[in-house]
Specification:
The structure is a single chain. The radius of gyration is 20 Å and the shape is globular. It has 13 helices and twelve strands. It folds into two domains: 191 residues, 3-Layer(aba) Sandwich (Isopropylmalate Dehydrogenase); 123 residues, Rossmann fold, CATH 3.40.50. By secondary structure, the chain is an alpha/beta fold. α1 runs parallel beside α13 and α11 runs antiparallel to α12. Bound molecules: nicotinamide-adenine-dinucleotide, 3-isopropylmalic acid and manganese (II) ion (MN). Manganese (II) ion (MN) binds next to α10.
Length: 346
Protein backbone atom coordinates (compact mmCIF):
# COMPACT_ATOMS: atom_id res chain seq x y z
CA UNK A 1 0.00 0.00 0.00
CA UNK A 2 1.31 3.46 -0.93
CA UNK A 3 1.55 6.10 1.77
CA UNK A 4 0.59 9.63 0.81
CA UNK A 5 1.38 12.33 3.36
CA UNK A 6 -0.96 15.32 3.14
CA UNK A 7 0.11 18.68 4.55
CA UNK A 8 -2.98 20.91 4.25
CA UNK A 9 -1.27 23.94 5.83
CA UNK A 10 -2.90 27.35 6.26
CA UNK A 11 -5.43 29.73 4.66
CA UNK A 12 -7.01 28.09 1.63
CA UNK A 13 -4.57 25.15 1.97
CA UNK A 14 -7.00 22.91 3.91
CA UNK A 15 -9.93 23.89 1.61
CA UNK A 16 -8.14 22.85 -1.57
CA UNK A 17 -6.57 19.80 0.09
CA UNK A 18 -10.02 18.51 1.11
CA UNK A 19 -11.21 19.16 -2.43
CA UNK A 20 -8.26 17.33 -3.96
CA UNK A 21 -8.54 14.30 -1.68
CA UNK A 22 -12.28 13.94 -2.33
CA UNK A 23 -11.62 13.95 -6.06
CA UNK A 24 -8.72 11.50 -5.74
CA UNK A 25 -10.87 9.12 -3.72
CA UNK A 26 -13.63 9.27 -6.33
CA UNK A 27 -11.21 8.68 -9.20
CA UNK A 28 -8.90 5.91 -8.05
CA UNK A 29 -10.95 2.81 -7.09
CA UNK A 30 -11.38 1.74 -10.70
CA UNK A 31 -7.63 1.95 -11.28
CA UNK A 32 -6.90 -0.24 -8.26
CA UNK A 33 -4.42 2.23 -6.76
CA UNK A 34 -3.98 1.14 -3.17
CA UNK A 35 -3.01 4.00 -0.85
CA UNK A 36 -3.63 5.59 2.50
CA UNK A 37 -3.50 9.29 3.21
CA UNK A 38 -2.12 10.63 6.48
CA UNK A 39 -2.46 14.28 7.41
CA UNK A 40 0.22 16.17 9.35
CA UNK A 41 0.51 19.70 10.69
CA UNK A 42 2.89 21.93 8.76
CA UNK A 43 3.34 25.70 8.51
CA UNK A 44 1.40 28.19 10.62
CA UNK A 45 -0.96 25.56 12.01
CA UNK A 46 2.07 23.59 13.22
CA UNK A 47 3.44 26.71 14.92
CA UNK A 48 0.10 26.96 16.73
CA UNK A 49 0.03 23.29 17.74
CA UNK A 50 3.73 22.60 18.41
CA UNK A 51 5.64 25.91 18.33
CA UNK A 52 7.52 25.15 15.12
CA UNK A 53 6.47 25.12 11.42
CA UNK A 54 8.16 21.80 10.59
CA UNK A 55 7.71 19.42 13.54
CA UNK A 56 9.99 16.36 13.64
CA UNK A 57 7.00 14.01 13.27
CA UNK A 58 5.95 15.81 10.07
CA UNK A 59 9.44 15.64 8.58
CA UNK A 60 9.76 11.95 9.48
CA UNK A 61 6.40 11.15 7.88
CA UNK A 62 7.49 12.97 4.71
CA UNK A 63 10.76 11.02 4.64
CA UNK A 64 8.81 7.76 4.83
CA UNK A 65 6.07 8.70 2.37
CA UNK A 66 5.68 7.51 -1.22
CA UNK A 67 4.41 10.96 -2.18
CA UNK A 68 3.71 14.23 -0.39
CA UNK A 69 0.85 16.62 -1.09
CA UNK A 70 1.08 20.18 0.21
CA UNK A 71 -1.74 22.76 0.22
CA UNK A 72 -0.15 26.10 1.11
CA UNK A 73 1.37 27.71 4.19
CA UNK A 74 1.75 31.17 5.72
CA UNK A 75 -0.39 34.15 6.57
CA UNK A 76 -0.40 37.43 8.45
CA UNK A 77 -0.94 35.70 11.79
CA UNK A 78 2.61 34.31 11.72
CA UNK A 79 4.44 37.24 10.06
CA UNK A 80 6.38 37.97 13.23
CA UNK A 81 6.81 34.42 14.50
CA UNK A 82 10.41 33.63 15.57
CA UNK A 83 10.39 31.05 12.80
CA UNK A 84 7.87 31.76 10.06
CA UNK A 85 5.89 29.09 8.16
CA UNK A 86 7.88 29.95 5.01
CA UNK A 87 11.09 29.00 6.85
CA UNK A 88 9.53 25.58 7.53
CA UNK A 89 8.83 25.16 3.82
CA UNK A 90 12.44 25.96 2.92
CA UNK A 91 13.64 23.48 5.58
CA UNK A 92 11.34 20.78 4.21
CA UNK A 93 12.60 21.32 0.65
CA UNK A 94 16.24 21.32 1.82
CA UNK A 95 15.82 18.28 4.09
CA UNK A 96 14.18 16.22 1.36
CA UNK A 97 16.65 17.47 -1.26
CA UNK A 98 13.82 18.68 -3.51
CA UNK A 99 16.09 20.52 -5.95
CA UNK A 100 13.94 20.29 -9.08
CA UNK A 101 10.66 22.19 -9.06
CA UNK A 102 8.60 21.53 -12.17
CA UNK A 103 5.95 24.17 -12.91
CA UNK A 104 3.95 23.43 -16.08
CA UNK A 105 1.91 26.14 -17.77
CA UNK A 106 -0.51 24.72 -20.28
CA UNK A 107 -3.53 26.46 -21.73
CA UNK A 108 -6.42 24.18 -22.57
CA UNK A 109 -9.29 25.26 -24.82
CA UNK A 110 -11.56 25.97 -21.88
CA UNK A 111 -8.97 28.12 -20.10
CA UNK A 112 -8.02 29.96 -23.29
CA UNK A 113 -11.48 31.48 -23.44
CA UNK A 114 -11.19 32.80 -19.87
CA UNK A 115 -7.72 34.35 -20.13
CA UNK A 116 -7.26 38.12 -19.86
CA UNK A 117 -4.81 37.83 -22.81
CA UNK A 118 -5.93 37.61 -26.44
CA UNK A 119 -6.69 34.05 -27.58
CA UNK A 120 -4.36 34.16 -30.57
CA UNK A 121 -1.48 35.12 -28.30
CA UNK A 122 -1.91 32.17 -25.96
CA UNK A 123 -3.55 29.42 -28.04
CA UNK A 124 -1.51 26.25 -27.57
CA UNK A 125 0.77 27.65 -24.85
CA UNK A 126 2.54 24.67 -23.31
CA UNK A 127 5.79 25.21 -21.44
CA UNK A 128 7.43 24.05 -18.25
CA UNK A 129 9.42 26.18 -15.85
CA UNK A 130 12.16 24.08 -14.25
CA UNK A 131 13.01 26.03 -11.12
CA UNK A 132 16.10 25.19 -9.05
CA UNK A 133 14.67 24.87 -5.54
CA UNK A 134 17.38 24.23 -2.94
CA UNK A 135 20.07 26.77 -3.77
CA UNK A 136 20.68 30.39 -4.67
CA UNK A 137 19.79 33.39 -2.58
CA UNK A 138 17.15 31.44 -0.60
CA UNK A 139 19.83 29.39 1.15
CA UNK A 140 23.23 31.10 0.70
CA UNK A 141 25.28 32.02 3.78
CA UNK A 142 26.13 34.42 5.32
CA UNK A 143 22.88 36.25 5.85
CA UNK A 144 22.15 38.89 8.44
CA UNK A 145 19.47 41.36 9.37
CA UNK A 146 20.59 44.34 11.42
CA UNK A 147 19.00 47.70 12.03
CA UNK A 148 21.06 49.60 9.43
CA UNK A 149 22.25 46.75 7.23
CA UNK A 150 20.95 43.51 5.80
CA UNK A 151 22.71 40.84 3.78
CA UNK A 152 21.71 37.84 1.65
CA UNK A 153 24.10 35.64 -0.28
CA UNK A 154 23.42 34.16 -3.68
CA UNK A 155 25.51 31.03 -4.04
CA UNK A 156 25.52 28.26 -6.67
CA UNK A 157 28.00 25.44 -7.16
CA UNK A 158 28.82 23.89 -10.53
CA UNK A 159 27.26 20.56 -9.52
CA UNK A 160 24.01 22.19 -8.36
CA UNK A 161 23.69 23.86 -11.77
CA UNK A 162 24.63 20.67 -13.62
CA UNK A 163 21.92 18.55 -12.02
CA UNK A 164 19.09 21.05 -12.62
CA UNK A 165 20.30 21.57 -16.21
CA UNK A 166 20.28 17.80 -16.83
CA UNK A 167 16.76 17.64 -15.41
CA UNK A 168 15.63 20.38 -17.82
CA UNK A 169 17.33 18.84 -20.86
CA UNK A 170 15.89 15.41 -20.07
CA UNK A 171 12.40 16.92 -19.88
CA UNK A 172 12.96 18.83 -23.14
CA UNK A 173 13.94 15.56 -24.81
CA UNK A 174 10.42 14.25 -24.21
CA UNK A 175 8.87 17.46 -25.64
CA UNK A 176 9.77 20.07 -28.27
CA UNK A 177 13.51 19.75 -27.58
CA UNK A 178 14.15 23.38 -26.69
CA UNK A 179 15.62 24.72 -23.45
CA UNK A 180 15.60 28.42 -22.59
CA UNK A 181 18.05 29.11 -19.79
CA UNK A 182 17.15 32.30 -17.94
CA UNK A 183 19.82 34.21 -16.03
CA UNK A 184 21.29 37.66 -15.38
CA UNK A 185 24.71 36.87 -16.82
CA UNK A 186 25.29 40.52 -17.77
CA UNK A 187 25.61 41.31 -14.05
CA UNK A 188 25.70 38.35 -11.64
CA UNK A 189 28.63 35.98 -11.02
CA UNK A 190 26.24 33.10 -10.24
CA UNK A 191 24.55 33.72 -13.60
CA UNK A 192 27.89 33.69 -15.44
CA UNK A 193 28.59 30.25 -13.98
CA UNK A 194 24.99 29.25 -14.72
CA UNK A 195 25.42 30.12 -18.42
CA UNK A 196 28.78 28.38 -18.68
CA UNK A 197 27.37 25.16 -17.17
CA UNK A 198 24.28 25.36 -19.39
CA UNK A 199 26.58 25.37 -22.46
CA UNK A 200 28.55 22.44 -21.08
CA UNK A 201 25.51 20.29 -20.26
CA UNK A 202 23.98 21.12 -23.66
CA UNK A 203 26.84 19.16 -25.28
CA UNK A 204 25.45 16.00 -23.62
CA UNK A 205 22.14 16.64 -25.40
CA UNK A 206 22.97 17.43 -29.04
CA UNK A 207 19.34 16.80 -30.05
CA UNK A 208 18.10 19.64 -27.78
CA UNK A 209 18.42 23.32 -28.70
CA UNK A 210 19.68 25.67 -26.00
CA UNK A 211 19.04 29.39 -25.92
CA UNK A 212 19.85 31.96 -23.26
CA UNK A 213 17.61 34.79 -22.15
CA UNK A 214 18.26 37.51 -19.61
CA UNK A 215 15.65 37.47 -16.88
CA UNK A 216 14.34 41.00 -17.44
CA UNK A 217 13.57 40.48 -21.11
CA UNK A 218 12.36 36.92 -20.37
CA UNK A 219 9.75 38.46 -18.07
CA UNK A 220 8.50 40.53 -20.99
CA UNK A 221 8.57 37.72 -23.56
CA UNK A 222 6.63 35.42 -21.24
CA UNK A 223 3.54 37.56 -21.78
CA UNK A 224 4.31 38.98 -25.23
CA UNK A 225 4.96 35.65 -26.94
CA UNK A 226 4.59 32.73 -24.50
CA UNK A 227 4.17 30.17 -27.29
CA UNK A 228 7.89 30.29 -28.12
CA UNK A 229 8.82 28.51 -24.88
CA UNK A 230 9.17 24.79 -24.29
CA UNK A 231 11.36 24.26 -21.21
CA UNK A 232 12.55 27.26 -19.21
CA UNK A 233 15.29 26.48 -16.70
CA UNK A 234 16.23 29.04 -14.11
CA UNK A 235 17.54 29.64 -10.60
CA UNK A 236 15.45 29.67 -7.45
CA UNK A 237 14.38 33.32 -7.15
CA UNK A 238 13.91 33.98 -10.88
CA UNK A 239 11.81 30.81 -11.12
CA UNK A 240 9.63 31.92 -8.22
CA UNK A 241 8.91 35.28 -9.83
CA UNK A 242 8.52 34.12 -13.45
CA UNK A 243 6.13 31.33 -12.50
CA UNK A 244 3.76 33.69 -10.69
CA UNK A 245 4.00 35.99 -13.71
CA UNK A 246 3.09 33.05 -15.94
CA UNK A 247 -0.22 32.80 -14.07
CA UNK A 248 -1.34 35.88 -16.01
CA UNK A 249 -1.60 33.61 -19.07
CA UNK A 250 -4.49 31.53 -17.65
CA UNK A 251 -5.49 34.60 -15.64
CA UNK A 252 -5.12 33.08 -12.17
CA UNK A 253 -2.66 31.36 -9.87
CA UNK A 254 -5.53 29.03 -9.01
CA UNK A 255 -4.84 26.59 -11.87
CA UNK A 256 -1.06 26.17 -11.65
CA UNK A 257 0.39 23.02 -10.06
CA UNK A 258 3.94 21.90 -9.38
CA UNK A 259 6.04 18.84 -8.63
CA UNK A 260 9.32 18.86 -6.73
CA UNK A 261 11.79 16.03 -7.20
CA UNK A 262 14.92 14.97 -5.36
CA UNK A 263 17.70 12.48 -6.01
CA UNK A 264 16.61 10.02 -3.31
CA UNK A 265 13.44 11.00 -1.45
CA UNK A 266 9.85 10.92 -2.61
CA UNK A 267 8.42 13.80 -4.57
CA UNK A 268 6.25 16.62 -3.27
CA UNK A 269 3.29 18.08 -5.16
CA UNK A 270 1.88 21.54 -4.44
CA UNK A 271 0.16 24.47 -6.12
CA UNK A 272 2.55 27.31 -6.97
CA UNK A 273 0.38 29.83 -5.12
CA UNK A 274 0.25 30.65 -1.44
CA UNK A 275 -2.35 30.49 1.31
CA UNK A 276 -4.41 33.35 -0.21
CA UNK A 277 -5.42 34.95 3.12
CA UNK A 278 -7.70 37.38 1.23
CA UNK A 279 -10.11 34.58 0.27
CA UNK A 280 -9.46 31.98 3.00
CA UNK A 281 -12.57 30.56 4.64
CA UNK A 282 -14.87 31.90 1.89
CA UNK A 283 -15.29 28.65 -0.02
CA UNK A 284 -14.19 30.48 -3.16
CA UNK A 285 -10.68 29.13 -3.75
CA UNK A 286 -10.02 27.47 -7.08
CA UNK A 287 -9.14 23.84 -6.25
CA UNK A 288 -7.70 23.14 -9.72
CA UNK A 289 -4.15 24.01 -8.66
CA UNK A 290 -4.35 21.18 -6.10
CA UNK A 291 -6.24 18.82 -8.40
CA UNK A 292 -3.66 19.28 -11.18
CA UNK A 293 -0.90 18.76 -8.58
CA UNK A 294 -2.57 15.44 -7.71
CA UNK A 295 -2.69 14.60 -11.39
CA UNK A 296 1.09 15.23 -11.56
CA UNK A 297 1.47 12.89 -8.56
CA UNK A 298 -0.53 10.16 -10.31
CA UNK A 299 1.74 10.41 -13.35
CA UNK A 300 5.13 11.04 -11.85
CA UNK A 301 5.07 9.07 -8.58
CA UNK A 302 2.57 6.30 -9.34
CA UNK A 303 2.77 5.97 -13.16
CA UNK A 304 -1.05 6.06 -13.27
CA UNK A 305 -1.16 7.77 -16.66
CA UNK A 306 -4.74 6.85 -17.57
CA UNK A 307 -6.09 8.05 -14.23
CA UNK A 308 -4.28 11.38 -14.64
CA UNK A 309 -5.62 11.77 -18.16
CA UNK A 310 -9.17 10.98 -17.09
CA UNK A 311 -8.92 13.51 -14.26
CA UNK A 312 -7.63 16.30 -16.49
CA UNK A 313 -10.23 15.61 -19.18
CA UNK A 314 -13.01 15.70 -16.56
CA UNK A 315 -11.74 19.07 -15.27
CA UNK A 316 -11.80 20.39 -18.83
CA UNK A 317 -15.43 19.28 -19.32
CA UNK A 318 -16.52 20.75 -16.00
CA UNK A 319 -15.03 24.14 -16.91
CA UNK A 320 -16.64 23.93 -20.35
CA UNK A 321 -20.00 23.32 -18.67
CA UNK A 322 -19.54 26.70 -17.00
CA UNK A 323 -18.36 25.74 -13.53
CA UNK A 324 -15.71 28.32 -12.74
CA UNK A 325 -14.60 29.88 -9.48
CA UNK A 326 -14.39 33.62 -8.91
CA UNK A 327 -10.73 33.95 -9.99
CA UNK A 328 -11.78 32.73 -13.46
CA UNK A 329 -14.72 35.12 -13.54
CA UNK A 330 -17.37 32.66 -12.35
CA UNK A 331 -19.60 32.15 -9.33
CA UNK A 332 -18.98 28.48 -8.54
CA UNK A 333 -17.84 27.80 -4.98
CA UNK A 334 -15.01 25.43 -4.15
CA UNK A 335 -17.42 22.77 -2.90
CA UNK A 336 -19.74 23.17 -5.90
CA UNK A 337 -16.80 22.71 -8.25
CA UNK A 338 -15.73 19.56 -6.44
CA UNK A 339 -19.29 18.22 -6.55
CA UNK A 340 -19.54 18.87 -10.29
CA UNK A 341 -16.21 17.17 -10.87
CA UNK A 342 -17.18 14.16 -8.78
CA UNK A 343 -20.42 13.83 -10.80
CA UNK A 344 -18.34 14.03 -13.98
CA UNK A 345 -16.08 11.24 -12.75
CA UNK A 346 -18.95 8.90 -11.82
P1 LIG B 1 -0.96 34.03 -2.80
O1 LIG B 1 -0.42 33.16 -3.86
O2 LIG B 1 -1.40 33.37 -1.56
O3 LIG B 1 -2.17 34.90 -3.38
C1 LIG B 1 -2.01 35.81 -4.46
C2 LIG B 1 -3.38 36.13 -5.08
O4 LIG B 1 -3.83 34.99 -5.80
C3 LIG B 1 -4.46 36.42 -4.04
O5 LIG B 1 -5.30 37.43 -4.52
C4 LIG B 1 -5.19 35.10 -3.91
O6 LIG B 1 -6.53 35.24 -3.52
C5 LIG B 1 -5.08 34.55 -5.33
N1 LIG B 1 -5.09 33.08 -5.31
C6 LIG B 1 -4.07 32.25 -4.95
N2 LIG B 1 -4.46 30.98 -5.01
C7 LIG B 1 -5.75 30.97 -5.42
C8 LIG B 1 -6.70 29.94 -5.68
N3 LIG B 1 -6.41 28.63 -5.53
N4 LIG B 1 -7.95 30.31 -6.07
C9 LIG B 1 -8.26 31.59 -6.24
N5 LIG B 1 -7.40 32.62 -6.03
C10 LIG B 1 -6.15 32.31 -5.62
O7 LIG B 1 0.19 35.11 -2.47
P2 LIG B 1 0.36 36.11 -1.23
O8 LIG B 1 -0.96 36.69 -0.85
O9 LIG B 1 1.45 37.00 -1.63
O10 LIG B 1 0.87 35.18 -0.07
C11 LIG B 1 0.08 34.73 1.03
C12 LIG B 1 0.90 33.83 1.93
O11 LIG B 1 1.21 32.61 1.25
C13 LIG B 1 2.25 34.42 2.35
O12 LIG B 1 2.44 34.10 3.69
C14 LIG B 1 3.25 33.69 1.48
O13 LIG B 1 4.53 33.61 2.04
C15 LIG B 1 2.62 32.34 1.37
N6 LIG B 1 3.01 31.52 0.22
C16 LIG B 1 3.08 30.19 0.42
C17 LIG B 1 3.37 29.35 -0.63
C18 LIG B 1 3.39 27.87 -0.39
O14 LIG B 1 2.84 27.39 0.56
N7 LIG B 1 4.02 27.09 -1.25
C19 LIG B 1 3.54 29.87 -1.90
C20 LIG B 1 3.45 31.24 -2.09
C21 LIG B 1 3.17 32.08 -1.02
C1 LIG C 1 6.58 29.29 -3.65
C2 LIG C 1 6.57 30.29 -2.51
C3 LIG C 1 7.75 30.04 -1.60
C4 LIG C 1 9.01 30.34 -2.40
C5 LIG C 1 7.75 30.85 -0.29
C6 LIG C 1 6.47 30.70 0.48
C7 LIG C 1 8.92 30.48 0.58
O1 LIG C 1 6.52 31.58 -2.99
O2 LIG C 1 6.53 28.08 -3.39
O3 LIG C 1 6.61 29.70 -4.81
O4 LIG C 1 9.43 31.49 -2.51
O5 LIG C 1 9.57 29.38 -2.90
MN1 LIG D 1 6.18 31.73 -5.15
Amino acid sequence: MKKIVALPGDGIGPEIMDAGIQVLNQLTPKYGLDYKIERYDFGGCAIDSTGTPLPKTTLKACQEADAILLGAIGGPKWSNAPKRPEQGLLELRKNLGLFANIRPVKISKSLEALSPLKSERIRGVDFIIVRELTGGIYFGEPRELKKERALDTCLYTRSEIQRIMRQAFNIARTRKKKVTSVDKANVLATSKLWREVAEEVAKEFPDVKLEHQLVDSAAMLLIQNPKQFDVIVTENLFGDILSDEASVIPGTLGVLPSASHSEKNSSLYEPIHGSAPDIAGKNSANPLSMIFSISMMLRESFKEYSAAEELEAACERVIEKGYTTKDLGGKTTTTEFVQALIEELK
